[in-house]
Amino acid sequence: MSETRDRLAIIGWPVGHSRSPLIHNHWLAAAGRAPNYVAHPIDPNDDFRAALEGMAAEGFIGANVTIPHKEAAFAAMDEVSVAAQSLGAVNTISFKQGRFMGANTDGDGFLLGLETAMDQAVSAAGWRDRPALVLGAGGAARAIIAALGRAGIGDIRLTNRTREKAEALTALADNVSVGDWGARQQLAEGCGLLVNTTSLGMTGQPPLDGVSAMLASLGDGALVADIVYAPLETDLLRAARAAGRHAVDGLGMLLNQAALSFEIWFGARPEIDATLRAALIADIEKG
Ligand code: NAP
User: Fold this and answer.
1) Cα–Cα separations (whole angstroms), residue 222 to 205, 210, 228
2) Which end of the chain is more exposed for a tag (fewer CB within 10 A), N or C?
C-alpha cells in the first residue's frame, strides 16, 4: 500500500481533534484502498492556494476543509459547485490536473441524514410540505438554510439569539423569514422540521430553553434534528422522543457530509455501517 500517493486530508487550524480521518480511513480500508487520510493543519497566515499546490505536489488528490479555512478555500478554487457558490464556502476539494474543484457537502449531508431517518419513520415524510424552523445563525446554519431552500421548503423560519446574524442569512434561500429568539414557540407552530444548529445543549454549553413548548407547537409527525453530536443524545432529542417526535441526531450530518465528499473523490457513495457508527460514538464518548 502506498503511503505517498492518493493521499487525502482534512485541512483546518487546529485540526487534530477532527473525526474525519477516522471516518474516511474506515471507508478507504473497506474499499481496499490505503488508509491515507490525514489531518493537515494550515496556518491561517499562510497563502492557502500555495499550500494546496504544495499538497498536490506531495500526492494529495483531495481534501476536506474545516474552520477557519472554508472561505479561503472558496477563494482559491478554479471551479465550484452550486452549493459552494451559494455559501461562498468550500468543504471538499478535488485536485484535478493542477486545477482545484470545490464543493460544499455540509447542507446536502444534513438533508441526506434526514432522508435516512425518514426511511425508518415513513410517517414523517410530509415534512417537506410544511414550514421548517432553524434555531441558530452560525456557520452550520448557513449550509442548512441553503440546502432547505434547494430542497424546495416554502417557509423557512429562522431565529437566533443575535437577530442581526439571522437577518444576514435571509438571502441564502427564498422564503426565509426571521423571528425573535424569544418567540420560538410561536415560530414552531405547524412546522414539519425543527433543527437546532446552535451550540446549546453541547457538552459544557448551557441547555436549550423552551424545548417542551416548541415540541408541543410542531405539526403532526414533525422531525426534530439536532446537529450537536457531543453528547449524541441531547436534551432536545431526548425530549423529542419522549413527546413521540421523530428525532435525528448530529451523526446524520457528520457522516453524510463525509459520505458525499467520498463520493466526489471516488464516484461511489460509501456505506455508513454499524461498525463505523459505533467507532465514532466511542470516539465522541472519549471526548
Ligand atoms: P457557530 O458558527 O459558532 O454558531 C454558534 C451558534 O450558536 C450561533 O447561532 C450562536 O448565536 C448560538 N449560540 C451560542 N451560544 C448561545 C447561547 N448561550 N444562547 C443562544 N444561542 C447561542 O457554530 P457552528 O459552526 O455553526 O456550530 C454550531 C454547533 O453545530 C456546534 O455544536 C457544532 O459542534 C455543531 N456542528 C455539527 C455538525 C455536524 O456535522 N453534526 C457540523 C457543524 C457544526 P449568536 O449568533 O447569538 O452568537
Assistant:
1) 26, 17, 19
2) C
